[in-house]
Amino acid sequence: MSLIQPSTAPPKVGLVLTGGGARAAYQVGVLRAIAEMLPKRTRNPFPVICGTSAGAFNAASLAVSARNFHEGVRDLSAVWENARVSQAYRSDPIGVYGNAARWLASLLLGRLRKRSVVSLLDNSPLAQLLEYSLPLHGIQRSIEAGALHALGITAWGYTSGQSVTFYEGVDGIAPWKRERRIGISARIGVEHLMASSAIPILFPAMRLNREYFGDGSMRQLAPISPALHLGAERVLVIGVRKAVEAQPERATVDSYPTLAQIGGHVMGSLFLDSLYVDLERLQRINNIIGMISDENLKNNGMPLRQIKSMVISPSVEINKIAEQHAHALPRTVRLFFRNIGAMRRDGSALLSYVLFEEPFCRALIELGYQDTVPRRSEILQFIHAESE
Known about the structure:
- This protein is an alpha/beta fold.
- The protein has helices at about 25-35, 55-65, 70-80, 85-90, 95-110, 125-135, 140-145, 190-195, 225-230, 260-270, 275-290, 295-300, 320-325, 330-340, 350-355, 360-370, 375-380, and strands spanning about 15, 50, 150-155, 165-170, 175-180, 180-185, 205-210, 210-215, 235-240, 310.
- Strand 3 (about 150-155) and strand 4 form a beta hairpin.
């Protein structure tokens, strides 16, 4: 599972931050709780940080401030606690309906120019926010200070059909190539974050080098893999979906699903499902390795070792929280999503990905915090840290 050889040094802990749009606010609550468990002015406890989609913003922010974990989490919290839809995408009538009209016209008239940027929503405010508030040159400073081993940001190439992890890290990290998955060394910039979070149809694809890229969650069959390639020896995963405890009951319905209901299922498949499949696969491989003696592994030239993992995920359905805060959306955006059924209960899944508003984000931060605090001893043991 890993080519990393055992050592006497504490294992490198990788942090995997998944995609999920506005749901990524949950990750901030988890990180805030972990920060409170550690001494003040401590360095980042996660030498390897990987982020995808909205999780890429959180990952990059932590990497920039890796020399002081408390400050980094505080700054990240301040952004999410004061979130506004207008900071993520245009919420004015022209911004919302103008973009939607262009997208519809391109479908009906077939006049999509080669270099046109067409999407349902205009996320240019997000690029401006990142340029202003996230000094990405700090990533290299964190690496030089020894507070960060590597940062990985994953995006999906529309032409190559590859899941590409752009990484910035210490010297000696080798690029990798697997089936539909590659790792490329790069100086991480705002363009990488925008590409990783370019949800298909909703937001425009981003050109990097010779190819257009979209949301990194697309066909990301092994979301934990980049952290291992970058040197992690165990991984803490912060998910944004409640773990499924039982199969849902089959129900008879009379009405056709709304666009929002269909879109919510597509988003769930895009952002959430592959993570839990990969965790299940990791556990199976660990079990198989556990059945083979160290001597046999060594004699057969198989430098494999078990990879410990820990998952923190919401204890309640985030969709339900989105229902409670749907009214916080700006009027124009609220009307737009009402027209496609997102303001209904069966459309709340889609709503939860785009509800970048203070009340919803604060509720998710609080949920992440409350879900994490009771696991204090387990977390400290996992990251080999001592509490205050």
